[in-house]
Amino acid sequence: MKRSEFESWTRAELDAVESALEAWVPASTPACLGLAMRYGVLDGGKRVRPLLVLAACQAVGGLREAAMRAACAVELIHAYSLIHDDMPCMDNDVLRRGKPTVHVEFDEATALLVGDALQTLAFQLLAEHRLADEPRAQLEMVKLLAVAAGSRGMAGGQAIDLESTGKVLALPELEVMHIHKTGALIRAAVLIGAACGKPLAETERAGLDRYAKAVGLAFQVVDDLLDTEGSTATLGKTAGKDSKQGKPTYVSAIGAARAKELAEELRSDAQAALRPLGSRAARLESLADFVVLRKF
Amino acid sequence: MKRSEFESWTRAELDAVESALEAWVPASTPACLGLAMRYGVLDGGKRVRPLLVLAACQAVGGLREAAMRAACAVELIHAYSLIHDDMPCMDNDVLRRGKPTVHVEFDEATALLVGDALQTLAFQLLAEHRLADEPRAQLEMVKLLAVAAGSRGMAGGQAIDLESTGKVLALPELEVMHIHKTGALIRAAVLIGAACGKPLAETERAGLDRYAKAVGLAFQVVDDLLDTEGSTATLGKTAGKDSKQGKPTYVSAIGAARAKELAEELRSDAQAALRPLGSRAARLESLADFVVLRKF
After folding, report:
1. ipTM score
2. Is residue B233 in a domain?
3. CATH label of the domain that carries residue A74
């Protein structure tokens, strides 16, 4: 896919995701909860996960309305995890997506509730409207999201992260942490997007899954590189915080040069895995480029 | 229903709920997350919400396996809310269900993750197995739970609670807070239990809904009375903390004598609302007695 074509697709989809989140994250809630939820979600972030949902849905010819709800649901899970992760008892960070973090802008109790309510809203979005011809496919989306976000997925990865701070992890242990912490939700984004269409052939599904796993790991390798090499202004979050907090990263485990090679290998692997899907997967292919080549 | 009969039903169901939670809250997770999740959920609590789910399911002749999963899902949402609510940035409480709170026994970061992961697990339980003849009924359960737990339900109620601390609320405002904070999830427990069976006639559904709303409010009125009149040892949580923290309660708003009358009125109303369901609703009727007459 031509770069300009990918960029205009991305721009249009980011606008559509923003509008959908605008519509679905409620402003009118008791107290100021809705306001704080909107602060934590709207107007920020790369939205890589929603783009993966939408591209995967398009690759399988799935239903757009379903994919847009699923894309927002995945993004809400991601946003809630960032808000809780930034709280003083976790990473204690003050800057996220170029703005003060939710607990800084509001307070800790509000940040706690905002994260809680955004997680709930993710599941509500997947359940409250008919999203698939087959309600069973819709339940499958709920299950994929729950397993990816839960104790054997993202939350489990956060727990490993907590336990690992200040330790040196070997590469396999680091990989286990990231497969949970970042990888599970990115993988779910692709599989949920694909669940918006007709059931896939086994080779197609296996290819998508291999793609999703490789992109998930590549995302984290590049995140670790950017934490070392990027600036706070470009990243919109505090640069260099992982090493300052003594967190094991790909850079600390294998060095920056090898981490860059690894990101490249994962990109190639991800793109090779898409072959069974043919040209329909062009956007997913370009997203792997984006994940690895991004500067923020 | 005879009191002894109700008590033996309750004992058997509480054992069944405990076994189900034992089986479904995973011990083997990354790091110590599973251990802390089990600490936060197992072996404690009145389990009023699971009993309501099970009794409502039985009142409509629904599927037991579905109701048990739904009962545990509702209890997980309740348990997560208590764990987050006890954290230092919220109520800062050290005792819950007769044990040190999760952030005291483990630490704050773990308590945050435990709450997050228990919420996710609630939705996973509802989605990962076939629970109803009609998958659409199962999606309806996910929706009921999400709406009840979210920003227009329980989390919204917590936000009103935060904003109201130190204020005097008039009775209607107090009621709005509790309809969200406690009422929404109790109401959902009844409706989710009923969703495990065949669709109800409109009078039956309306009756159950009126019952559920009245029981939810009665529960909170009695909670406020017990906070004033109960002891920490009996309650298993810190007695007198609402008034100490300047929280508006039914006792502060209308006095203990009127609050007791109100609880009785709500009990009568709840039980009257069950009439369209006939004798099948005997356990729900007894549960209204339990909610109002309990000493803990």
Report:
1. 0.96
2. yes
3. 1.10.600.10
